[in-house]
Design goal:
Number of strands: 2
Structural class: mainly alpha
Strand content: under 5%
Radius of gyration: 19 Å
Distance between the termini: 49 Å
Shape: globular
Order of helices and strands: HHHHHHEE
Helix content: 40-55%
């Protein structure tokens, strides 16, 4: 009985892996494979001032957070500045995923389909995932 369950589990895992490979092969995601990387710098490619004057830059976004301590605009102009504090607490990933992937009116999901490769790069040879702009 245990061998049968183990075999079923292995077959299920292989089926999911095969389906995932088929999806990636059929339509490359931005930043992976042959598709052009539309956000090579990650956060700062989207978080910037727009041509119509709207400010979505990291310093502007941080100022909208009520509980965030004050920080200089130059410190917040890159993701490296964010890691000055957030790396010590190891909480930036959880905060960013919650902000970008939850909520019914989430603009990241609407505009970018919630695609991981807008923020993360994937090494197609090794499968290693990293954060752009860090």
């Amino acid at each position: 009985m245990r061998k049968s369950l183990a075999l079923i589990g292995v077959v299920a895992i292989l089926a999911v892996a095969a389906a995932s490979i088929a999806v990636f092969a059929a339509e490359p995601m931005p930043g992976l494979g042959s598709a052009a990387d539309v956000n090579p710098n990650g956060c700062v490619d989207c978080h910037k001032k727009t041509a119509d004057g709207k400010d979505y830059s990291l310093p502007a976004e941080i100022k909208n957070l009520k509980k965030h301590p004050k920080a200089s605009d130059s410190m917040l102009s890159t993701l490296k500045g964010c890691y000055t504090c957030h790396a010590k607490r190891a909480d930036l990933g959880g905060l960013m995923h919650a902000a970008h992937l939850t909520g019914k009116d989430n603009s990241f999901i609407k505009a970018y389909d919630g695609s991981c490769t807008h923020c993360h790069s994937v090494n197609a040879a090794t499968g290693a995932i990293s954060i752009k702009g860090k």
